[in-house]
Amino acid sequence: MAAILEEETSTVHISAVNLGEVYDILLRRRGLAAAQEVEATVFQQPNVQVVEAGWSRVRAAAELKAEGGLSFADAFAASLARELSAPLVTGDPEFTGLEQRGVIRVRWLPRP
C-alpha cells in the first residue's frame, strides 16, 4: 500500500466511513495515539482525498450491501470505487464477487 501512496501520479480516495473504520480498529487495538497518528498521516498526504459520505453515497452503498456479501463499510469502499471508475485497492477476498460480476475493478494487495 505504501508504494501506491508514493506514486506521484496517483490520487488515492478513501471514504470517510472507511477511514473511520480504520480509526476505530486502531483505537481499540493500539490506543488513541496510534489512531491519531494514522489520521494525521492520511490528512497530510497530498495525493489522498478523504471523501465525505453524503446521502447519495450512503444510498449507493446501501444498494450494494443489499445485494449481499459485504459489510456496510466494505459497501462504501466498493461504491466509491464504482462512482470514481477507479480500482479498489484491497486484499480482502469479499470483493471477488463484485470484481467477477464487473461491478468494480480491484487492484489486489498481497495477503500476509
Relative strand content: 5-15%
What integer value in Å does the Rg equal? Answer: 14 Å
**E-strand count:** 4
Count of individual domains: 1
The helical percent reads 55-70%
Tally of DSSP helical segments: 6
Major beta sheet summary: 2 strands, parallel
Q: How does the SSE layout of this entry go?
A:
Elements: H1 2-6, E1 12-15, H2 16-30, H3 32-44, E2 48-51, H4 55-66, H5 72-84, E3 88-90, H6 96-100, E4 106-108
Helix pairs in contact: 2-3, 4-5
Q: Could you please describe the fold and organization of this structure?
A:
β3, α6 and β4 form a beta-alpha-beta unit. This protein is of the alpha/beta class. It has one domain: Rossmann fold. The protein contains six helices and four strands, in the order αβααβααβαβ. The strands form two sheets. A two-stranded parallel ribbon has the order 1-2. A two-stranded parallel ribbon has the order 3-4. It has helices spanning 2-6, 16-30, 32-44, 55-66, 72-84, 96-100, and strands spanning 12-15, 48-51, 88-90, 106-108.
What structural keywords apply?
112 residues; alpha/beta; Rossmann fold; two-stranded parallel sheet; 12% strand
Task: Write a concise synopsis of the structure shown.
The protein has 112 residues and is α/β, with parallel strands linked by helices. It has helices at 2-6, 16-30, 32-44, 55-66, 72-84, 96-100, and strands at residues 12-15, 48-51, 88-90, 106-108.
